[in-house]
Specification:
Blueprint (H helix, E strand, L loop, with lengths): L1 H24 L4 E4 L10 H9 L7 E4 L8 H18 L5 E6 L2 H11 L6 E7 L15 H6 L4 H6 L6 E4 L16 E4 L12 H11 L1
Parallel strand pairs: 1-2, 1-3, 3-4, 4-5, 5-6
Length: 211
């Protein structure tokens, strides 16, 4: 009996392992876009959770861009190049974009101004300054100027390009915190700006919005 139960558990485990990647693959490739002064490594924890949940590692991509130097317009064009490359690798499948902080503005510019909505299945932002953040008055780079409330960049977007947004009441960088709400928004776990990248509760919300 014990041997039978062990065998049954193995079969169930194998079946679950076989089904999980298939179900995840149906959502298509994911491109992670970091925030201001960040890097692709910011996504290591979340990407690992995706893989542990059954998402194929070869469908996860990290977009690195020079946020301290380039305007979001330039970075958006580079994001578009990566989207084209990823789609060509996956039979023309639409991509999912998951962006943190300023990465959400880069993504929105790509979606609205460069036709990216035709190439994108889902866009999820975490703590992005969709209506600007007063924190951006502390720096003077092109991306910072574009993150300021009522910047010409934000005025040009005119609220367009949002899909799903997650935000925290205690973000601390997006000021006011509600500036991160755009499109279909969800108040996620009460964690600080960087913890949005690593908190397991935020990850669960991301997975829910990815469906």
């Amino acid at each position: 009996m014990k041997k039978f139960l062990t065998r049954l558990a193995f079969v169930a485990s194998a079946a679950a392992a076989a089904l999980a990647p298939s179900a995840a693959s149906a959502n298509g490739p994911i491109i992670f876009v970091h925030g201001y002064s960040g890097s692709g490594s910011n996504w290591d924890t979340m990407a690992s959770r995706f893989v542990a949940s059954g998402y194929p590692s070869n469908q996860l991509y990290k977009f690195d861009y020079a946020s301290l130097i380039n305007s979001n317009r330039v970075s958006a064009s580079q994001l578009g190049n990566l989207v084209n490359t990823v789609r060509s690798r996956h039979g023309g499948a639409k991509v999912n974009i998951i962006a943190h902080s300023n990465g959400g503005l880069v993504s929105r510019w790509y979606l609205v101004m460069q036709g990216g909505q035709n190439n994108t299945r889902r866009f999820i932002s975490l703590g992005s300054p969709h209506s600007g953040t007063t924190w951006a008055y502390a720096c003077v780079s092109p991306a910072c100027l574009e993150m300021r409330p009522l910047s010409t960049f934000l005025i040009s977007l005119a609220g367009r390009g949002c899909d799903r947004s997650l935000w925290s009441t205690v973000d601390g960088i997006i000021l006011p915190a509600t500036s991160a709400a755009c499109g279909r928004s969800r108040m996620t776990a009460a964690v600080n700006h960087l913890a949005l990248l690593t908190d397991s509760r935020v990850y669960n919300d991301v997975r829910a919005e990815l469906q």
